[in-house]
Prior knowledge:
By secondary structure, this protein is α/β, with parallel strands linked by helices. It has a domain at 26-154 and 251-290: D-Maltodextrin-Binding Protein, domain 2, CATH 3.40.190. Helices cover 52% and strands 14% of the residues. It is built from 13 helices and 11 strands. The protein has helices spanning 3-28, 46-62, 83-88, 110-113, 121-130, 133-141, 181-189, 202-208, 219-224, 260-264, 268-302, 312-332, 334-372, and strands spanning 33-39, 67-72, 94-97, 146-153, 160-162, 176-178, 193-195, 213-214, 241-244, 253-259, 306-309. The strands form 2 sheets. The protein has a 6-stranded mixed β-sheet.
Amino acid sequence: MPASRRQFITQAGVITAGAAVAAPALADSSPDVHWTMTSAFQPGLDLIVGGAEAFARALSDMTDGHFTVAIHPPGDVASAVDALDAVANGKAECAHTALAYSWNKDPAYAFGSGAPFGMNARQHTAWLQDGGGNALIDELLADRGLIAAPLGDTGGQMAGWFRREVHRASDFTGMKVRIGGFAGKVLETLGATAVALPKDGIIEALSKGSLDAFEWVGPYDDEKFSAAEDGSGAISKVAPYYYYPGWWKGEMQLHLVIAKEKFSALPKAYQTALRAAAALGNESVRSKYDTANPGALKRLVVGGAQLRLFSQDILEACYKSTNDLYAQLGQENPRFKKIADSYMSFRADEYLWWQVAEYSFDNFMIRERRAKG
């Protein structure tokens, strides 16, 4: 064998042997990181919680089990509404929550989750990812030492369940509606009262007439809301009118809220893995809701739910009140105005495009479906 060939084989063998040693050595050098996540969502919201679980599994797989996240339900580390605060106060490294739950701290948080008469799920994702939305949200969270990444989107939601029909805006006068945040403020301008009520008390309150309406999520989650095996707890027995569209959020974007100091201390590879895993979990939630909602809606209607479309009068009145509140909050809160200006400008361009391509196609397909049954 020529010397040059013997030398090449010998060198190749050394390189191969070195690679065999280097791989586990590299893995062994990866630090073990164990984080606590406090969730704002009860296990019954299984598609939302499933998004967080998909995130945690993917993150562990991407790091060969070296970076793990333990998910804790509401009430374990913090209550549902205090999940974001728990991260800011050092009780957990991250939280799975809706930024809109912190509306009372700053109304600008609403834009992270989806605002009244805002964008649909795809449009909102585009604004966050490529329209500057994520940077604006992180800027808003900066004074609390936090950053955020999208983690789950429910897509479009229903407006909720009503004991009686509403035909015009004036019908909201005197109504007691379980709803919070921005939407509650809008309905209050129409004479309704926004009521805070625990989930377990809703059906009873509707039955007694101390509550007139409430919103939850959409068909899949609403179907499971309080129904017993015999169907005696079905919402439609006490509030049969199921209204749409859910104008107070064209979608509901959820977030992984992270302690910025903890994130910055991670190796770059772990930072990338965390963001990639969040993106995977984010898409999985919307996909599952899009799959589950059609069948659930059919079952709800068969079970007694009566679908009702909000009248033009109601939608226009709510739209005007919403824009009035946007203007008022923009004058009072510079941070709100900065995010609102970006959000509304992006929304205007998105609906210009939607009108040309998306809506025209969808509208045709909907008409064809109805015509052919």
